[in-house]
């Protein structure tokens, strides 16, 4: 089976798999800021979030609001991190993550430089 990297092909395949119209997938909408996403969670429009390698329970401006949203019973939170954090403590599921020394691959940080690193033996 040949896998496609064409965005349109991937979108239509995903929509078919989920049995929904392609335009209902977020990729067809304009991107929204993370703080807007959390407002949508607070209102119940977003019912699940997968948080990877970040700790919004301490990094967002309004910490009380953020912690209240992440702790809402109607929101399913998946957190993926290399350490236990305030966010992983609020998560319904915590997934492990690999650090740079544990895997081979490309890494990009906020400043946008890319680096390739091989895993440690």
What does this structure look like?
The protein folds into 2 domains: 1-31, no CATH class; 32-117, no CATH class. Helix content is 31%, strand content 17%. It has 5 helices and 5 strands, in the order H-H-E-H-H-E-H-E-E-E. It has helices spanning 7-18, 34-42, 56-59, 63-70, 86-90, and strands at residues 48-52, 76-80, 93-95, 105-108, 114-117. The strands form 2 sheets. A 3-stranded parallel beta sheet has the order 1-2-3. A two-stranded antiparallel sheet has the order 4-5. The longest helix is centred in the N-terminal third of the chain and has 12 residues, at 7-18. The mean pLDDT is 84.
Number of helices: 5
What composes the largest sheet?
3 strands, parallel
* Helix vs. strand class: alpha/beta
* Mean pLDDT over the residues: 84
Number of separate structural domains: 2
Helix content: 25-40%
State the total count of DSSP E strands: 5
Mass-distribution shape: globular
How much strand?
15-25%
